[in-house]
Write a structure and sequence with these properties.
0% strand, 191 residues, single chain
Length: 191
Amino acid sequence: MAVNLRRALPHQDTPFFRGLHIVVAVLVLAQIINSNMTETEALGQSSLTGIVTFLHIISGFGLLLCGVVMLFWMLTQRGARYYFSYLYLDFRGVTDDFRTLRQFRLPEAHAGGMAAIVQGLGVLSLLGVAAVGGLWFILNMMYGPDSVLVHDVLHLHKFLTVFIETYFWAHGAMGILHLLMTIRLQQLNKE
């Protein structure tokens, strides 16, 4: 079963990207879990809330770095048009994918397709949330937690978090569905 699972995981041909993908997923999950235990006022305190807040900030900067590396890797490997075809007003990949879905089949990943566009949007949302969170931290250090600007940037960070959380859970569900379908196909091919 473990061998089947490893074979079903995506990005077999790119172990660096696979590893980066797993690191980002684990860090995002950790951010989602520990975000409920963070408080602006706890920064600098040695309480549990202060430590969790500090870890949230450190892992947020780690996610910012991972997101930049991931975007750079994606763009150097396949180019912007692969992930952001809609910016070039090229919707052929999406229309092809909808035709495939109407036949009750899952479309393969390809340039301008739904999987590529969703991946591109996911990385952009990750970068947006992490960058605004980093900006909040810097402004908080400069102006203190009582500043209106710091407060507004924190609320923007919380708002953007909705998009990355939605992406995380939907992407995870689709990933699990893909794994199950791939393992099922492997079992059928053995028979």
